[in-house]
């Protein structure tokens, strides 16, 4: 009988107590006396968000298949419980055993979003683990980071003992074997383990690398402190998608999660090459699961979960080559089992609309387009590969298919953007609204007014994209651009069909600082956390005045990371990582965007020489 970390009295005081009790269906319980390594997998956000994440499900099942490893889950306690834990000295605990995190061998933290960085410090604080790697004792857990934000780990480097760069299926077994063997033969010390771990491909140990800065604040040199360490950390890539670990018995949460359904990954990577998209670059090359494997996985997941909905996961599901055949299978299987199908990441074309009309209650749902830019010029700059004609044809087909609600997603602040480009965002929405009445001239046929929702986020130039050299805008400038869009929308003849919403500008700027920052940012994050910042990804908890105070107190100018122009020969904080996409390719794409404004074809049309042929599989060699 396991002990509970929280009493009934505490659970009755907090919102959603089921977040903290564990014992969910399909969770893994083991005898800890027979385990050689305990791994606490932390998602630094609330339970409902973390339980929706596919990556944690994959690694949870992969780790727990080992008889000598027990992987447990931990999430950020909501502020109501966090304050009680601080007040009463209750340590952060894992859900399965309810044991304190300080008793584990590893604390793994996935870095999915920069605005969760203060939640990392909350996890360390509540666990009693020193914030800085250099201050940790022999008995403290090894703190390891991974995920998409680890492609620039430097702003949080001081808080981690090591980072895993790439896809977790490849090297974690080797890392665990090293730890267990050193523990068993008595050769383990924290420092020696980190030295040996740094020799494993994809493992980055920040304390073994030194950064020096020039007088202007840019990086002068980044190099290992010891001989034998790699100068470049190679991203790890799982090429065999059919035999890669996949969660056949995912944990079923008690609390309704953000993505409360079966999730089946059909492929990894993307062929499109949008110049703003980090995922589209760092997950290259595009790799697919086979049709037979997907059919088998779908049936097994239905049996093991009891969900009434399945979602196909990828960056661009429309580009999955065997989608028509797989959907034929799914439609028959799901109809028999009374299971719904959702299809995110589809390009809006005749095939996609035909499929959605078969699998969704189309007249009650909204259709989502992501043109990203209003003008054709800007769509060419970002390499969107989408023409106005294609957008209008997709909208027309959608209206004929029964949709009358359309959501349009755009970005403001993209490189080379002009006021004319901004005004063309509502102009495009207006054209689509006008098309609705052209397509369905009979009032009885169309059944009411169309509803077009315009949503704009603000551009953040991410590492390892062609736009990594771009500048950002100040928060006030982002808002000015949003006002231009809003004003133009209200001038449109059919503006009552249009609505507009935009992102929080100050959050965007801070995200940009974290995405592009160096090690000097860590003291700003620590200062902000110590003065009350946490759950910054949630609007109700984001307090920009704390961050303003933190930058001032730490003598760090955020504009240095967001507004300053970067030259192509500057050493960027993340340049020590090799993702497989060459710097030459990124530079050429940057020049195409800002000079030639030419479009690069997708990977299936022709190879553009990004460098990922080195991996020897996926779309790079398909059909050759």
Explain what this protein looks like in three dimensions.
With 624 residues, the chain is of the alpha/beta class. Among the domains are: 227 residues, 3-Layer(aba) Sandwich (Rossmann fold), CATH 3.40.50.280; 140 residues, Transcription Regulator spoIIAA (2-Layer Sandwich), CATH 3.30.750. The chain contains 21 helices and 19 strands. The strands form 6 sheets. A 6-stranded mixed sheet has the order 2-1-3-4-5-6, covered by helices on one side. α14 packs parallel to α16, α16 crosses α17 and α18 crosses α19. The longest helix is centred in the C-terminal third of the chain and has 21 residues. It is globular and about 80 Å long. The mean pLDDT is 94.
CATH H level of the domain at 8-234: which superfamily?
Cobalamin-binding domain
The 3D shape can be described as: globular
Give the CATH topology of the domain at 8-234. Rossmann fold
Mean pLDDT: 94
Strand content: 5-15%
State the share of residues found in helices, binned by percent.
Answer: 25-40%
**SS-derived structural category:** alpha/beta
Task: Give a quick summary of the entry.
This protein has 624 residues and is of the alpha/beta class. Helices cover 35% and strands 14% of the residues.
